[in-house]
Amino acid sequence: ERTRGIMARGTTNASRGAVCECRASGRSVRSQALPRPCRSGPRRRRGVKVRAEGKLSDLTSVVESQQFDRGMLEDLFEVTKEMERIVEDGAECSLLAGKVMGTLFYEPSTRTRLSFETAMCRLGGKVVSTENAREFSSVAKGETLEDTVRTLEQYVDVIVLRHFQAGSARIAADAASVPLISAGDGPGQHPTQALLDIYTIQKEIGRIDETKVALVGDLANGRTARSLAYVLSKFDKVKLYFVAPDVVRINQDIKDHLTKNGCEWEEVNDLATVAAEVDVLYQTRIQNERFG
Questions:
Q1: Between residues 115 and 31, which one has the greater pLDDT?
Q2: Is there a catalytic annotation at residue 112?
């Protein structure tokens, strides 16, 4: 039966931050989701490896949805299933024992920040956090984002960044010598949300190929819709409907990307004209904070 109205934002999913090897309830779980830095050893070279050649383990940071190809997404689905079993078993997991995650949030967040922090705790790691870095960090004294990242990386093994400016995740990742995961950068992208959304579609419907998806709301400023559109373009015979008022229509760069990759899309003004046709209805809010 077709599913209309998949809402993934409230889901706490341990796939965010899922890494390498764990033993829970006597079962060994292996994945390639994230590199495992060692603070006592040498740091990696600074800079983002955008293309990972089809291997999750080659990713150094996650800053945009374009970093993932279809094979990597399917591998990540399998890792996510194992992480879900860890949570369902309720067994103590030491997968990330001895590791520390720093969450650096320059914008308000409830679901995203807590889901990252919960995932880290469930996998045996620890968290240091600032939920209002724009006001309660050295940025208030004039420190740059790059310098903040270079300071934080001395304390942690991975950084999760939420920022108010598009492109800030890449800037921060280029400055970092530990893995950095974007939790959203202004109106730019929210790649980890897209990963969760695409997994939810696969889990609820049983497929992603040959689906029709309506993206509704503020598509000009909604970073989740932008990232999801990029990810959906990796699959076959997907059609996207963009439903938004003229003032917040999807930006041209997304449409150009979809056309280039052979993904069909259509802009419509009235949701009622396509609601009965789609498999997934993805509703976003108006981003009031992005207007003047």
A1: 115
A2: yes
What residues contact residue 224 under an 8 Å CB cut-off, 6+ apart?
9, 184, 190, 193, 194, 197, 284
Look up 162 and say whether it is catalytic: yes
Distance CA 114, CA 128 (A): 12
What are the pLDDT digits (tens) for 143-165? 999 999 999 999 999 999 999 99
Q: Is 237 a catalytic residue?
A: no
Q: Is 257 marked active-site?
A: no
Local confidence band at 140 (pLDDT 50, 70, 90 cut-offs): confident
Choose, from 190, 223, 234, 239, the residue flagged as catalytic: 190
* 163 included as an active-site residue: no
Q: Which of 4, 30, 55, 111 is flagged as catalytic?
A: 111
Cα dihedral 82/84/90/96 (nearest 10): 60
Active-site position among 60, 80, 103, 112: 112
Write the CB contacts of 222 (distance below 8 Å, at least 6 apart in sequence): 187, 284, 285, 287
